[in-house]
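[User] I wish I could look at a protein chain and see how it folds. I have put the entry right below:
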Amino acid sequence: MPSPILYIHGLNSSPASLKASQLVQAMARLGLAEQLRVPALHHHPRQALAQLEAAIAELGTPLLVGSSLGGYYATHLAERHGLKALLINPVVNPHRLFDGFLGPQTNHYSGETWQLTLDHVEALAALEVPAPKDPQRYQVWLQTADETLDYRQAERFYRACALRIQAGGDHGFQGFTERLPALFCFAGVDTALYQGIDFSAP
């Protein structure tokens, strides 16, 4: 039985983001739609973590798939619960990156506006964990042309994990659909279900 999948989007993102939508479509195509959760996360880390903890309680032992800030959340939760995690251009220690960025924010998908405060930053800092050491439980997918984050920070932090570093790309991670078979393999999905499927085809 494959692991259910919990997809964790990034800051100012949503279940309507490209990767989330592509994963939803692919899981439906495999007849596994019920095995996937893509919560619309609250902008405040404490409330987002409560949502994610509830999803883990529902799913049991999901594979965590975290993008950007979602990768930071996924790392915290994987260490806390002993779960597997696949991280896509994850941010490392986001609480150290927000100098000069406090103030109004807008969700790119919902249009919601909100205030990034010191309380957000302190809540993020409280989630910091040591660098993971278990390459069996982690895959970290990085693209070197990420315009938002320096991929080398994640390369250093996750150096003991299974790293997949691809030249070029961007923060959104180009070619995600082509890598879906690797994601499904990591989740323990039977290869017969997805072998030969071109997930990039409409």
User: Anything to note?
Assistant: The chain has one domain: 5-95+103-194.
